């Protein structure tokens, strides 16, 4: 009986295994829908099986998406807590090695925002480096390369038909980067002055401040000298060289963007080290407060605008990776050349010969969306990914988060935070947070307005100097539409439709910028004014130009 009872279950399990697959599917369908399918000739209907499987597959995909979102959120929270915990351990270790008195701690709290809330640097790769390891994403990269090949091929064919020969002169690039030796000399002067003046001013002030009885006087004197240097040497002289010599656009962009970068670097260096000196007792020296000169040199080249004495470093330099990034920058440069030659110059040269007309304006904006979006992608990829990663690799700089997944943004608030993390960090810590600290966190809306204003003014200043005319299109977009979209399309907006709205507005904005600035560029050349008044300099020439 024992053998018989043992054999009974085995025989039943064996009989279960030989059930035909159609019966198994039918049983699954009954469990999923609660209905018994009508048999046809003793078999389950194929259509019902297929629809049931599709429903189950759809449910599994939704479940997978929900699980992945939960997992991603938990991982991000874990990493943030880990970074904060490591930062607190580092700060506690530093306070153990260099103990501060209660008076010093109180003074340090009142001279700057809490250090626990400052930016933390960790070793991490750029997002595109991770995404390019996925074949699906790399295919999009290959599509852009194929589009470049078509641009090159079409340009060569058209030039051969028009000229009867292959034209490989690249005259637009030669013009855009004209007077390059003057650019190099001017940049060397700017860099060397930034290398010497802020460091010497900080060192002299730090040597006097702890033991002086006139601390406020020394602080005002050193601050005034720093502002005078930044206003004259970094502010006025590069702009004067650009305007006096009539540098072409690309050369202008190099000098003016470097001017802005060095001013931001010098401010961060002073801003991070002054509170450290102010926290010292009168009897102590500045040996621990002022960083080494080599640390300052490293910061001037590092792809960040936030000063730290030390950054996380990678163990080695991949020179092949560096060569790849610089070659991609060069490729993006030629890509932009063919975009302007094929899509922009023929269109705007003919449009600029017409009077300002609403119909022509609407057509111009929509025809400019494609080149505007391509230029946006190229600027992002060439500078924020390739250029910064190349310098980060040469310096073994570990934190490569120069941008985040801005393309997934469902709000303009998130887009502003993720598009350019390097500049956003500087604006957040030295404009937004310092403004809140000075106002005791009472005017958050005003702090946001100050950030938008600073960003809009600097962007418009760069474009006005480099293009040679004042046409505040970008300023209006920043201060009007940018502010409105920042509050309307905020972080509470979720879902794919908001990402579509964000991309639509971004595409339209790029079309407006390319159209209006290109029209004004040609109007300035076709309708010059010999002795323009101040009003003529402020009034757009494209509104009245009729060559």
From TrEMBL:
<keyword id="KW-1133">Transmembrane helix</keyword>
<dbReference type="Pfam" id="PF03062">
    <property type="entry name" value="MBOAT"/>
</dbReference>
<feature type="transmembrane region" description="Helical">
    <location>
        <begin position="443"/>
        <end position="463"/>
    </location>
</feature>
<keyword id="KW-0012">Acyltransferase</keyword>
<feature type="transmembrane region" description="Helical">
    <location>
        <begin position="217"/>
        <end position="241"/>
    </location>
</feature>
<dbReference type="GO" id="GO:0005789">
    <property type="term" value="C:endoplasmic reticulum membrane"/>
</dbReference>
<dbReference type="InterPro" id="IPR014371">
    <property type="entry name" value="Oat_ACAT_DAG_ARE"/>
</dbReference>
<feature type="transmembrane region" description="Helical">
    <location>
        <begin position="469"/>
        <end position="488"/>
    </location>
</feature>
<dbReference type="InterPro" id="IPR004299">
    <property type="entry name" value="MBOAT_fam"/>
</dbReference>
<feature type="transmembrane region" description="Helical">
    <location>
        <begin position="361"/>
        <end position="392"/>
    </location>
</feature>
<dbReference type="GO" id="GO:0015485">
    <property type="term" value="F:cholesterol binding"/>
</dbReference>
<feature type="region of interest" description="Disordered">
    <location>
        <begin position="1"/>
        <end position="40"/>
    </location>
</feature>
<comment type="similarity">
    <text>Belongs to the membrane-bound acyltransferase family. Sterol o-acyltransferase subfamily.</text>
</comment>
<keyword id="KW-0808">Transferase</keyword>
<keyword id="KW-0256">Endoplasmic reticulum</keyword>
<dbReference type="GO" id="GO:0000062">
    <property type="term" value="F:fatty-acyl-CoA binding"/>
</dbReference>
<feature type="transmembrane region" description="Helical">
    <location>
        <begin position="412"/>
        <end position="431"/>
    </location>
</feature>
<dbReference type="GO" id="GO:0008203">
    <property type="term" value="P:cholesterol metabolic process"/>
</dbReference>
<keyword id="KW-0812">Transmembrane</keyword>
<keyword id="KW-1015">Disulfide bond</keyword>
<feature type="transmembrane region" description="Helical">
    <location>
        <begin position="319"/>
        <end position="340"/>
    </location>
</feature>
<protein>
    <recommendedName>
        <fullName>O-acyltransferase</fullName>
    </recommendedName>
</protein>
<keyword id="KW-0597">Phosphoprotein</keyword>
<feature type="transmembrane region" description="Helical">
    <location>
        <begin position="140"/>
        <end position="161"/>
    </location>
</feature>
<keyword id="KW-0472">Membrane</keyword>
<feature type="active site">
    <location>
        <position position="459"/>
    </location>
</feature>
<feature type="transmembrane region" description="Helical">
    <location>
        <begin position="500"/>
        <end position="519"/>
    </location>
</feature>
<dbReference type="GO" id="GO:0033344">
    <property type="term" value="P:cholesterol efflux"/>
</dbReference>
<dbReference type="GO" id="GO:0034736">
    <property type="term" value="F:cholesterol O-acyltransferase activity"/>
</dbReference>
<feature type="transmembrane region" description="Helical">
    <location>
        <begin position="181"/>
        <end position="205"/>
    </location>
</feature>
